[in-house]
Design brief:
Elements: H1 2-22, E1 23-26, E2 30-36, E3 39-44, E4 47-50, E5 56-63, E6 66-77, E7 83-94, H2 97-102, H3 107-123, H4 128-133, H5 135-150, E8 155-166, H6 169-242, H7 246-260, H8 274-288, H9 305-308
Antiparallel strand pairs: 1-4, 2-3, 2-5, 6-7, 7-8
């Protein structure tokens, strides 16, 4: 009985192993390459799959999701003979598991080497300044070459990015000095523009202020002249309306004489010849109002004719 039990156990184990090898579960976004006696038979997709045990074998399981592979820095020589280190990142996706398995031995290594050679060809036709400022152009050119070359491998390159472009240390120092000089230059230009604009605005303000001040003074002078003219016109009309006689005018003239001589600086003043006529008229007025209310009675005789006229004295010049 013991040998029979052993045989049964062996048969059960073989059946269990056969079932395991027959049923293949492939995860989502994955594929498996099946070979029969070393020859490609078919590709297993995601889900439950049945294969012939001990005849069919799983050669390779391929991840169909998009992959991200960073490559180490690669030294590249620019057109102006400067060595720069460039880091790249490749986003790729396997679209054909069979081609990725049989068309290339290691598609990761192949993509890396193809990226390096393509990058050297592209950067070799650019100088350093263009290399630093043309990342989008480099990415597009690199992606186009890689996508065309890796298509027969069953791989699609979705995106290529340059992580960093590092020029030599001496070039970095020179670039920093140039950048600092450019910033200082821009700052000086902006400061000069600010001072210039400030001076222009100040000059415009002073100009407008002077114009407004001149206009104000002109209007004030016009109003002042108009007021004085109105005052003179009013006085003139009042005098004519009052019909003053010669005696009143003579009296007013004599009252103005002390004001003419006011001030310490008036060392010389001239009495006009018309003062004699004014004094003559005033004397005549005083003569008419003699003692006792007028006339010739009871007092000194009133002067008449040439004797009544006051003697005209010559003006004194101090």
């Amino acid at each position: 009985m013991a040998p029979i039990i052993i045989v049964l156990i062996i048969l059960v184990v073989l059946v269990f192993i056969a079932l395991i090898k027959t049923i293949q579960v492939i995860p989502q976004a994955s594929a498996a390459i099946v070979e029969r006696f070393g020859r490609y038979t078919r590709t297993l997709n995601a889900g439950l799959n049945i294969v012939v045990p001990f005849i069919d074998s799983i050669r390779n399981r391929v991840d169909l999701r998009e992959q991200v592979v960073p490559f180490p820095p690669q030294p590249v020589i620019t057109q102006d003979n400067l060595v720069v280190n460039i880091d790249t990142v490749i986003y790729y996706q396997v679209t054909d598991a069979r081609a990725a398995t049989y068309e290339v031995a290691s598609y990761i290594q192949a993509i890396e080497q193809l990226t390096v050679t393509t990058l050297r060809n592209i950067i070799g036709g650019m100088d350093l300044e263009r290399t630093l400022t043309s990342r989008e152009e480099i990415n597009a050119a690199l992606r186009g070459v890689l996508d065309e070359a890796t298509g027969k491998w069953g791989i699609r390159v979705n995106r290529v990015e340059l992580k960093a472009i590092e020029p030599p240390t001496s070039i970095q120092d020179s670039m920093e000095k140039q950048m600092r000089a450019d910033r200082d230059k821009r700052a000086a230009i902006l400061q000069a523009e600010g001072v210039r604009q400030s001076e222009i605005l100040r000059a415009e303000g002073e100009k407008q202020s002077a114009i407004l001040r001149a206009e104000g003074e002109s209007r004030a002078a016009a109003l002042r002249a108009e007021g004085e003219a109105q005052a003179i016109r009013t006085v003139f009309e009042s005098i004519h309306a009052g019909d003053p006689d010669q005696k009143l005018l003579s009296y007013q003239y004599l009252q103005m004489l002390p004001k003419i001589a006011e001030g310490d600086a008036n060392k010389l003043w001239i009495v006009p010849s018309e003062i004699g006529d004014a004094l003559k008229g005033l004397g005549g007025a005083i003569g008419n109002f003699g003692p006792m209310g007028g006339g010739n009675g009871g007092g000194a005789p009133a002067a008449t004719g040439k004797e009544a006229a006051p003697r005209r004295e010559q003006p004194r010049i101090d």
